[in-house]
Design goal:
Distance between the termini: 15 Å
Number of helices: 4
Shape: elongated
Radius of gyration: 16 Å
Structural class: alpha+beta
Low-confidence stretches: none
Length: 126
């Protein structure tokens, strides 16, 4: 199955002020470097992949947690973006299949509206 979307949360565009502060902290005994490495590993530990038929959300480096949903079981897709998030093209995605709580929640993904559009298109069979 071809992959329609695959992305990890981004660092700078998701938290630009925090990123700049962390860079400044590198001069203070390398504290900023330690924070950047942890932050980088946390971002690389999460990944959302969308194919024509399913969504796969993987989380974790040493131990993995995987959530799979078929595209047809997705009931609602919410995209949340603050003003700064909209400027930098990132956002929070909540994917609901049944019930009142989201099955998948991913923060800091690039092009969050593209995810919503891909899911909608795939549900319509286009």
């Amino acid at each position: 199955m071809p992959v329609l979307y695959s992305a990890n949360p981004v660092m700078f565009r998701n938290h630009p002020i925090g990123f700049i502060i962390t860079l400044v902290l590198i001069g203070f005994y390398g504290i900023g470097l330690f924070i950047l490495v942890i932050w980088y590993l946390n971002n690389k530990a999460s990944k959302l992949t969308i194919t024509e038929r399913e969504l796969l959300y993987e989380k974790g480096l040493l131990s993995k947690e995987r959530s799979e949903l078929t595209i047809n079981s997705v009931r609602t897709t919410k995209v949340k973006q603050s003003f700064i998030n909209r400027i930098f093209g990132v956002g929070k995605i909540e994917i609901y299949s049944a019930g009142d709580f989201p099955e998948i929640v991913v923060t800091g993904l690039p092009n969050p509206n593209k995810v919503r559009e891909i899911i909608k298109r795939s549900q319509n069979g286009n």
